[in-house]
Design brief:
Layout lengths: L7 E7 L9 E7 L3 E11 L2 E8 L4 E8 L4 E10 L4 E7 L20 E3 L15 H5 L9 H66 L1
Parallel strand pairs: 1-8
Antiparallel strand pairs: 1-2, 2-7, 3-4, 4-5, 6-7
GO cellular component, one term: nucleus
Protein name: HSP20-like chaperone
InterPro entries: CS_dom (IPR007052), HSP20-like_chaperone (IPR008978), p23-like (IPR045250)
């Protein structure tokens, strides 16, 4: 792969001594338009190897990274998009402190850059927007979080509609009840009229007899 170019690699991180899900590395390999058949990504506890061919740039890319510390590849997430390969790499050791750097070797490399869109300072990470942690959803780790929140919102709307329907049903029932009462009231005079008619009819024969 001597003729292959080295892709730009962006990274940021979070750390936690108690919550494994908040103890991870954001890693993005910026190579666009790599078909799945042309992509090879090997993830290991100590590092990763990436190879890919960009159709739009018509170029091969290759990079090997050896991490500062171990990751848990089984708990890590990978999301391949048309723009890049995004990863959330779970740090194996729960630790409050940040890794001092991404790579084991302290030597600076030109292709590795800080992902300022995702980066927060170590002492401010607990105040980071939820989107920073929710970004894991895009990696396939928690795809339901954003959807669930929207569903919950939608559920609230549905609940409102149901409640209004239930309320409307109760009102409709009351109106029907009132109508029934009115019908009963209307029937009473009819009964009285029938009784009067009965009395009148019973008095008619007496008149005829006379």
């Amino acid at each position: 792969m001597s003729s292959a170019a080295t892709p730009e690699v962006l990274w940021a991180q979070r750390s936690s001594k108690t919550e494994a899900a908040k103890n991870f590395i954001y890693l993005t390999i910026s190579v666009p338009d790599v078909q799945p058949a042309n992509l090879k990504l090997q993830l290991k506890p100590q590092g990763l190897t990436f190879s890919g061919h960009s159709d739009s740039l018509k170029r091969d890319y290759h990079v090997e990274l050896e991490f500062y510390a171990e990751i848990d590849e089984k708990e890590s997430k990978i999301n391949h998009t048309a723009k890049n390969v995004e990863m959330v790499l779970r740090k194996k050791e729960l630790k409050e402190e940040f890794w001092p750097r991404l790579l084991k070797d302290a030597k600076k490399v030109h292709f590795l850059k800080t992902d300022f869109d995702k980066w927060v300072d170590e002492d401010e990470q607990n105040e980071a927007p939820e989107d920073d942690l929710g970004g894991m959803g895009g990696m396939g780790g928690m795809p339901g979080m954003g959807d669930m929140s929207s569903m919950m919102g939608g559920g609230g709307d549905f609940g409102g509609i149901d409640f209004s329907k239930l309320g409307g049903g109760a009102d409709a029932g009351d109106e029907e009840g009132e109508e029934e009462d009115d019908d009963d009231d209307d029937e009473m005079p009819e009964l009285e009229d029938e009784e009067k008619e009965g009395e009148a009819s019973s008095s008619k024969p007496k008149i005829e007899e006379l």
